[in-house]
Predict the 3D structure of the following.
Amino acid sequence: MAYNCVVLAKQVPDTQRITGKVMNDDGTVNRSALPAIFNPEDLNALELALQIKDRFGGRVTVVTMGLPGATRILRESLYRGADAAVLVTDMRCAASDTLATSYILSCAVRRMDYDIVLCGRQAIDGDTAQVGPQLAEKLGIPQITYIEALEDLHDNTIQVRRNIGNGWQSVKSRLPVLLTVTGEANTPRVAAAKHLMKYKKARTPAEATAEIKAINPNAVEAEIKELSETRCDALKARGLLIEQWNLDQVEADLTWCGRGGSPTKVHRIQSVVLAAKESKEVEPTDEGLAEMIHELIDDKIIA
Amino acid sequence: MGNFYKDNDDIQFLFRHIDLGRLACLCEEGFRFAEEFDYAPGDADEAVQNYEMVLDALGELAADFIAPRAESVDREGNTLNEDGTVTRAKGIAEALEKLAQAEVMGFTLPYRFGGLNFPNLLYSMATEIISRADASLMNIFGLQGIAETINAFACEELKQHYLPPFAEGKVTGAMVLTEPDAGSDLQAVKLRAFEDEKGNWFLHGVKRFITNGCGDVLLVLSRSEPDRSGGLGLSLFVCEPGPTVHIRRLEDKLGIHGSPTCEIFFDNTPCKLIGERKRGLAPYVATLMNGARIGIAAQSMGIAEAAYRIARDYAASRKQFGVAIEKLPAVRDMLIEMKIAVEAGRTLLYETSRVVDLAVAYNKRLEENPPEDKGELKELKNDARSYKRYAGMLTPMAKYLCSEMCNQVAYDAIQVLGGSGYMRDYASERHARDARITTIYEGTTQLQIVAAVRGVCSGTAEKYLADLAGQDYAAEVKDLIGKLSEGVEQLKATVEFVKDKGNDYMDLYGRALTDIAIALINGYLLCDQAGTKVQMDVAVAPGASSANGQAVPMKQRKALLTRRYVEKNAPKIKALAEVICQGDRSTLSDYEALVGPVQEQ
């Protein structure tokens, strides 16, 4: 039996490779100082989807919400083996918190034919781990978080192992289901050569239009529009058109989107600078150990 | 997140410096495949873009996935199970799965079988990158020549059957050539191939030292003509593992532990003939082995690169006598020599691969689609013949140079690390063990010399060197070009001297003659790099005398390297020529007296 998977991915600043000034004076992240990458655990989600496709068949569609530049991770998904990609982009999405984001994504995913929705456990920029679970609630489907391994999948039933911090749990669910996947689940495959050769030419309509504008700097609006449409049709015929949806197309209620749809209020941002040294030497004696334990209790690290 | 392509300035430089667009035009046959295959490039720029994207992906896989597993692969090795099957080291099995997913197991195969149709030069680059991560994985990744051989010589039916699974990475192959009494001398192969009354072929006999003999597609060299000794009695067959193919033994080796080396007994195994009878050794296996030699040269490059890098890092961090040991002249000199040897080896390997690509493409054009214009046809014939000859000479040269070089570099790397290098804490000792086989298999160094020196003495080297000398060189290296042309004159005089002395004398001084020719060829090729049009800055170590102390144009760096290479080689060439021209034949005449008798037990 084949399963259709929808993978939700996010383009994030690479917080592992910090160079230069990455924090603005107001405590927010200076995104321009960090290279944008495929959120690492979203790659694990994609890999799990591709493994399901390899074993059982079906289609893998990757969806991202973001600025047009996020198309890069959609192309990366196609290089690795995804069958289709969708960019949800709209200026009215700006400043969406996790609640608004999960709402917008639910509107997009609802338009697709899916058995399994896969998300990375969390994104390395916000580390909230909220969008996946919220999305499951909005879609009205069961969710299984912190997946380490797929144990079984047959007919309409999936069984997975999830990390519960101090151990693991084996959980069974009916489909459709939403999974959030951890980095331990697999090692993502690299881009496949023939996919690279083919999909390097994949474009969203916005990208196609921008390229046409660059080649025809003096063309008027109507000409550009016509050329773009022809170009998009050609791309689509060759399977190279990355779909691009705005909030109207996904039929989102605008009151739930963007800043207005985001109840999150930032109370205070603190820039924490670690002053202490990374390590502290403890004498390997009973007294030394007792002292260390008391210190840890005082710091409320252990109780 | 590492990347063995992106972190290698020299490979990236050569990628830009060498005219890949020209190779792409030839391989893509006027880009006629783009209509039929949606991933085939539409023009040269796109093809080159494809090449780089694939190397980039492979570089990531090599650094992040393959290299971290190399140590455990080396410790674990392969296991021969009681049922005769072979279990690969876990890291190798995992890497093969990733390589299949990366769609790089049909690198040079045509599109119609699911291959990438890349030039051999790109395959050499890829092989080096994989080898740097784990030399023993190369013994499987680098066996794509088996599919190439099927593609070149087998009938359409066999191609359709075997090639798509190769390209998908679903099967791996083995070149089943060596026997207990037929190693370097493959004309002595005994394994019997016989035909039943229905015309079905079967194999019977033993093969030994078979790399990846547990693979899925076995190309077996066997004696199909029992009454005919020598190479003309041999044919090439393909068979698959089954109840009549018994892996009897896995060798316990010094290095390349991830590569299973099998002894195989064929007990009346059904098989299919590749191409025609009696052509098994020449041309089929000869062609297969020429490709494999380039593969081993690329494997050698990977080992050398990996070994050099550890030594280079260690020399900067290890302090003795109050300074980093790289401040000590003896250590500095070793590291520079290692680095230059690596770049010189790569220079010759990539040039060889490029020449092979040209030879293959011109000959293919000649066979399949010759030009109608007489003048054009004549020119094409000339080119095809020249490049074929150059390839025939350069291939054994590259195999010889790179394999010997990687042994020297791996040896010196341990020397730089001192006691630590001798311990298993560093990969250096593995590199030295892995390197050791490269001068032995696919034809020993001594046999490469036999092949190469014939090119040196037959006029091929002279013609090729004249081609090189006829190119334009930058003003900065004009004096070096002068030195090289002096060297060419010395080589010519030496060859004349040797020719008068007969073939045994030529073989006796084959290595010296080949060394002179390689030093001159590489000298010209490096001078060409020193005049590159590629604009690229490369990082330098702190304290360098370059403009800003952090980076230097590659062109400038290559000029420094080339000057040192050519100037240090000039006196060596003189000395070698002098030794050859002394006419000393004592090796032939005084052997028995000098080495003494074999001890009675």
